[in-house]
Amino acid sequence: MTISIKKIGFVVSIVGAMMLPTLANAEIVFVVNDTVNATEISKKEAKKIFLGTKKEFGGVNVKVVGLSEGNNDREAFISEVLGMSADQLSKHWIDEGLKGGARPPKSLKTAGSLINYIKKKKNSIGYLNKTMASGSGLKILTIK
Fold first, then answer.
1. Among residues 59, 36, 13, which one has the least CA distance to residue 126?
2. pTM
């Protein structure tokens, strides 16, 4: 059985189109442990924190956590906040590792595990879909 390149391209286009509404509807918010003394963050500041060029936020050295590869909210975060592709982000962390620089944030598989981590770890910061952000011990930052 032979499958043509056109057919493969068509299938990839359909799958990609099906994912667009999910990414477009993902409103990403930043959340911190309630010990972090901050109520707002700029995308520029968040980008520096999540790329490892800034360690301090809200008066403390923050512990950064994100979502694992394959998570739609992670893909939206990379695109909307970091302004890059997943491949570009991977290259960034490889370059940092070769320089002995910053290490990538801890990655968790689900929004629930990210929320639990942030609630338990003082001075932690992460991102997730706004629809998932709630609960005591968790503070949602306003994006300025």
1. 36
2. 0.80
